[in-house]
Amino acid sequence: MKMKVINKLLDAGFDDEKKVMAFGMRDMLICEIKGEEIGVVLELQDATKSHKVISFLADRKEEFEQKPEKEEAASEAAEEKEDTVTENYTFGGYYEEQ
After folding, report:
1. How does pLDDT run across 6-18, given as a tens digit for each residue?
2. Based on the number of CB atoms within 10 Å of its own CB, is 11 exposed (0-12), middle (13-18) or buried (19 or more)?
């Protein structure tokens, strides 16, 4: 199914990484991408983002999906840090309160 979806994308002019990453809902209608093919497009975008297209084509899904988990953990850590630090304004300027 992956090759079928890739062929649809190529036929519609999505022939480089930038174009694949910009592929959106309207494009799915134009390319007649439906059902399970939508998931394949999303996986291809994830693989393209993490520079693991060959792993995607070789069905090594875990290799190109590991990076978003790390990014998710980093964003959770940043959110926790934001929760503990607040900025307050007094007459002279801003100060942080923890």
Report:
1. 999 999 999 999 9
2. exposed
Rounded CA-CA distance 60/46 in Å is 13
Can you give the pTM of this predicted structure? 0.60
Pull the structure tokens for residue 54.
Answer: 């060959």
CB atoms within 10 A of CB 9: 21
- CB-CB contact of 23 with 45 (8 Å): yes
Residues 6+ apart with CB under 8 A from 94: 87, 88
Q: Minimal CA–CA distance to 53: which of 21, 23, 30, 22?
A: 21
